[in-house]
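Issue 218. Parser rejects a valid record. Input:
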Amino acid sequence: MLSTVLYQFLVILASAVIMGEFFRQIGFSSVAGELISGIIVGPSALGLVNNPQELSPLAFVALFFIIYQLGFNAKTEKLKRYVVKGMTVTVSAFAAPFVIVLIISRSIFGFGAVEDFVLALAVSVPSISVVSVLVRDAGIEDRESGHVILAGIVIVDVLAFILLAALTRTITDTLRIVLFTAIFIAAFLILDYFISRNLAGTRKLFRGAARVIKGEELAYATLILTGLVVSELFQIMGLVYVLGAFFAALIVHDEVIGVRLFEKVSKTVNSMNKAFFAPFFFGYAGSEVILWENSYFNIFSIILLSLFVVGISIVFTYFLSGRYFGDDPNGRRSVSVIMAGKGSVGIIIANVALDAGIISYGANSLIILSTIVGSLAVTLLLRGHREEAAMIG
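Output the parser choked on:
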């Protein structure tokens, strides 16, 4: 049993690293390459990995570190400052495409009301993991357009998981989830405000703790354990734990724990994600694709639908973001294209729904194929704007 798990793990990781790097070298998203590598080694092609479900616990751990790094590198004050602008692009990048895709999927795929809803949700939602990478690659992570994008993505992903909860739980449970989420966010903002207003005292507290700990390894463990605890709170509330990891890491400022420790932790987690966690997670997701669960018509339809979603999202976001980037067409273009990025959130939604028994492997496979197509399309569109995006003020 253990040898089988290790074998499948090594096959997925090795193939994902190689294919991801290949795609990166030719100018495409490494995520798409890693997903494709999973399809190749999985049951749909070579069959080197026949039972990827055995690796699901490792995939959850990998996803925790991916999202934890994203929150760790974000800036709470920037997210708060741009939340209104982020809500505007949220409507165009998610809400409008979601409604359109739901109508189309109901008439094309006909899986059933709940399954079509999940498919439309997963296909339409932009992903914080992929979008953050696109923001970084475009060189706008420290610029207004980058902050608007990240603020909007956080809103979208929280909303998407609440909608998913509504499908898997009763109305009472869903209302409870909404209430708990609101309470947590309010408590999070209060804590962040307290830390910001009492920065000197907070720094003194951390310096005192550092003198007691006397080891960076224990400091690393403390930060990660904090993320795990908050993640568990989100799981208890009924939301996916990765959002808890994001919020837990978001509260950690370099001004609070010190620039030196912050940079070391950030560099360590980033290196682990690039070389290990991210390739494995996306490779694992690709290995769960079972192509024969769908007809050629469904496969061809999801490809066209994915391209349509990207196009609709870009057009809507471009026009709605005009009030914020009216004098900056480069900003409007970069925001519009990057907000269409698909990735891990859609895959998480599919996995949660699959585990809950509300979608089939056929629908799950279509969602992953859609993620690949969307990722490739967005990366290709960004090629023409990389230099322009780098000049956004």
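Fixed in the parser; the record now loads. Residues 385-393 have pLDDT under 50 and may be disordered.
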